[in-house]
Q: What sequence folds into this?
């Protein structure tokens, strides 16, 4: 069997078309996956509340994102959103650290953050977490903080 020049051109043309189709399909697939990944990232982002928010998103000890109830009973008008964000970052991070150091056999899930006071220049905060352990059940841990109008936090105690 002898391959003619026309047969070779046909084979090369078919090969080119197949290669082109595969490349286009790969590009479309990657674009779809990239958009899907971007949507997932947008949905799974830690958020900070404003002073009038009722909730915000925060990552738990199992690296899942949870909706945290936010209660603002502070009496100060001097607290800015930037200071609030700094305070929340400090409170939530320090709460998790304190809890993981003392109860490492539990997976901790943030539940509620309350702030109150502020008339004396210091705002009080109370952060509540649930600890979940398949064998031991659930516990609730509460950490208490003071923070100032710049958002600098001071850990007080936990129970």
A:
């Amino acid at each position: 069997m002898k391959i003619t020049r026309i047969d070779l051109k046909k084979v090369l043309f078919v090969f080119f078309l197949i290669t082109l189709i595969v490349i286009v399909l790969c590009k479309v697939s990657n674009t779809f996956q990239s958009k899907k990944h971007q949507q997932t990232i947008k949905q799974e982002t830690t958020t900070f509340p404003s002073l009038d928010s009722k909730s915000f998103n925060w990552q738990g000890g199992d690296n899942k994102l949870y909706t945290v109830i936010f209660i603002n009973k502070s009496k100060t008008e001097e607290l800015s959103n930037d200071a609030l964000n700094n305070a929340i970052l400090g409170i939530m991070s320090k709460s998790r650290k304190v809890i993981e150091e003392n109860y490492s056999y539990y997976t901790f899930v943030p539940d509620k953050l309350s702030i109150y006071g502020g008339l004396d220049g210091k705002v009080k905060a109370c952060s509540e977490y649930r600890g979940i352990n398949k064998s031991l059940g659930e516990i609730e841990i509460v950490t208490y903080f003071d923070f100032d109008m710049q958002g600098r936090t001071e850990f007080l105690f936990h129970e």
About this structure: The helical segments are 5-43, 81-102. Confidence is low (pLDDT under 50) at residues 34-42. The chain has two domains: 1-43, 55-158. The longest strand covers residues 122-133.
